[in-house]
Amino acid sequence: DVMIARCLTHLGIHYTDTRDANGRERFHPFAPGTHLHWQPPGPNEEADWYEEYNKEWGVLQGKDCCAPDSVSFHYVKKASMVRHMHALINSCDDTAE
User: Fold this and answer.
1) Who's near 80: CB < 8 A, 6+ residues apart?
2) I need a surface site. Which of 5, 41, 76, 89 has the fewest CB within 10 A?
3) C-beta neighbour count of 84 within 10 angstroms
């Protein structure tokens, strides 16, 4: 979160790039589906805040938008959260040592 990073910086704690080795984000300001389908504004349209915020490193689109070990998504509704948690919990291999 941008504001948390600003507060930590004020306290002398500096943040680092949290993207994975492929440049995929781990902390997301939108729900997973929004990131998956996000498109930049067209050539005659004004850039939106998300594109402006990420102009230094760019925004990966489609399936490259999000790291498989993503930490958080914002604006996830309860029904979606339940589905995501169910998929996560049931995809864990409990036989691994």
Assistant:
1) 31, 32
2) 89
3) 14
With a threshold of 0.85, does the pTM exceed it?
no
DSSP string, the chain: -HHHHHHHHHTTPPP-----TT--BSEESS-HHHHHH--PPPTTSPPPHHHHHTTTT----GGGSB-TT--EESS--HHHHHHHHHHHHHHS-TT--
Q: Distance between CA atoms of 10 and 7, rounded to whole angstroms?
A: 5
Q: In this predicted model, what pLDDT tens digit does every residue of 20-62 receive, in sequence order?
A: 999 999 989 999 889 999 998 888 998 889 988 888 888 999 9
